[in-house]
């Protein structure tokens, strides 16, 4: 069965588009992002709007590697490329050593509307179950990993031997959003990706290492002070 593909490539503009951006049917001027077959835009039915391959151009043998999730990644690339701002949550980090009564909470990054100067996608998308965008923020580069659950997302994003600041965006809320709407998928995605904080979390910011070091030093000092106190107590008892 054909997947209900939410996005296609508009040939004249070379953009990834949603159905509401183009005329209905074969007149949509779009091809499949994944196999290049001309598409038709399906709207106005009981289903949510979607693209499908023009039936006359594909037979049962036609193989197309389209998937819903990969369509989403392609549209995410368009949205992130056309914007220069993204809303991000704050990054709060807590170190805790309850045995020594030590606890330190810090906000490494405030909640903000982050402006970026440029963006690149360092990987070829077709073989990945996730996508990565590198945002040039001026003083640093932020790696943004888009995932649909289920993959390990390490702290820093290591790129060309540099540990980059890293935000992970969980894309499953987009799937849910699509289930509840029939149209307007680009705009829905745009507001979730650029304006909402839902599903977004920091996993690394370069200053956290210095914080971790200073907490470790406090912890070691506490351990030593405690040991010294214990020694003195033992000496007094003897
Ligand atoms: Zn296709």
Question: Could you describe the 3D structure shown?
Answer:
The chain has 238 residues and is of the alpha+beta class. The chain has 2 domains: 60 residues, no CATH class; 140 residues, no CATH class. The chain is 27% helix and 32% strand. It has 4 helices and 15 strands. Strands 10, 11, 12, 13, 14 and 15 form a 6-stranded mixed β-sheet that branches. Strands 2-1-3 form a 3-stranded antiparallel β-sheet, covered by helices on one side. A hairpin with a 2-residue loop joins strand 13 and strand 14. Helix 1 packs across helix 3 and helix 2 packs antiparallel against helix 3. The N and C termini lie far apart (83 Å). The model has no long low-confidence stretch (mean pLDDT 91). Zinc ion binds next to loops.
């Amino acid at each position: 069965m054909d997947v209900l593909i939410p996005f296609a490539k508009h040939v004249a503009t070379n953009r990834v588009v949603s159905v509401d951006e183009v005329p209905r049917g074969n007149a949509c001027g779009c091809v499949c992002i994944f196999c290049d077959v001309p598409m038709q835009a399906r709207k106005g039915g009981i289903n949510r709007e979607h693209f499908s391959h023009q039936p006359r151009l594909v037979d049962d043998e036609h193989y197309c590697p389209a998937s819903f999730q990969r369509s989403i990644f392609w549209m995410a690339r368009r949205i992130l490329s056309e914007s220069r701002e993204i809303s991000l949550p704050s990054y709060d980090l807590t170190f805790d050593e309850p045995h020594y009564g030590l606890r330190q909470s810090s906000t490494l990054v405030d909640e903000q509307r982050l402006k970026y100067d440029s963006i690149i996608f360092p990987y070829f998308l077709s073989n990945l179950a996730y996508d990565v965008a590198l945002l040039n923020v001026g003083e640093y580069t932020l790696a943004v990993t888009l995932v649909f659950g289920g993959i390990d997302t390490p702290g820093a994003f290591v790129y060309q031997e540099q540990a980059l600041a890293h935000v992970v965006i969980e894309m499953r809320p987009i799937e849910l959003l699509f289930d509840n709407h029939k149209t307007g998928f680009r705009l829905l995605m745009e507001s979730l990706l650029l304006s909402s904080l839902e599903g977004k979390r920091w996993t690394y910011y370069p200053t956290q290492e210095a914080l971790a070091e200073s907490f470790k030093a406090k912890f070691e000092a506490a351990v030593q002070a405690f040991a010294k106190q214990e020694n003195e107590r033992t000496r007094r008892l003897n």
